[in-house]
Amino acid sequence: MRAARLTRFASVGALATGVHVGVALGAAHALMLAPQMANTAGFCAAVLLSYFGHGRLVFHTNLRHRFHGPRFLATAVLGLMVSSSITQTMTVWLDVPFALTMACVALAVPVATYLMCKFWVFRPDYSAAS
Q: Of the chain's two ends, which shows fewer C-beta atoms within 10 Å, N or C?
């Protein structure tokens, strides 16, 4: 069960991460956006895909958007903060290439997201009337 859940999480996460990184790199190169703006564009593009994919496919949650939605949004914002911090540190302070920076983002954010989703975001809403 755990291995199957991790596989589903990795699949949804890989798709969302691909969207995030693809949009970020495209925005940086095609639109000439600064790294932080490009990263934010990529992150936003992946949020809805992540919410529904993780909620339905990974954690098999009957999504109650008023309960799960704000929690997922908080998790996404935290992920954006982590992502932005990595981007700032690596591109501005350490002068690391943007593509390598995005690879680091692609590793760090999914781990944090999984833990938040498993233990907080998609836990059952026991206050809901059955």
A: C
Judge contact between 55 and 68, C-beta under 8 A: yes
Answer yes or no: are the C-beta atoms of 79 and 115 closer than 8 Å: no
Decide: 12 and 54 in contact? Cβ < 8 Å: yes
**CA angle, corner 94, sides to 21 and 109, nearest 5?**
35
For residue 105, report the phi and psi dihedrals to the nearest 5 degrees: -60, -45
Q: What b/e readout covers 70-109, taking b as 16+ CB neighbours within 10 angstroms?
A: ebbeebbeebbebbbebbeebbeeeebebeebbeebbeeb
Calculate the average pLDDT of the chain: 91
- Per-residue pLDDT at 54 exceeds 70: yes
Nearest partner of 11 among 67, 41, 54, 65, judged by Cα = 54
pLDDT digits (tens, 9 = 90+) for 65-94: 999 999 999 998 898 899 899 999 999 999
Q: Record the tokens describing residue 21, joined without a space.
A: 């990184």
**Which pLDDT band holds residue 124 (cuts at 50, 70, 90)?**
confident
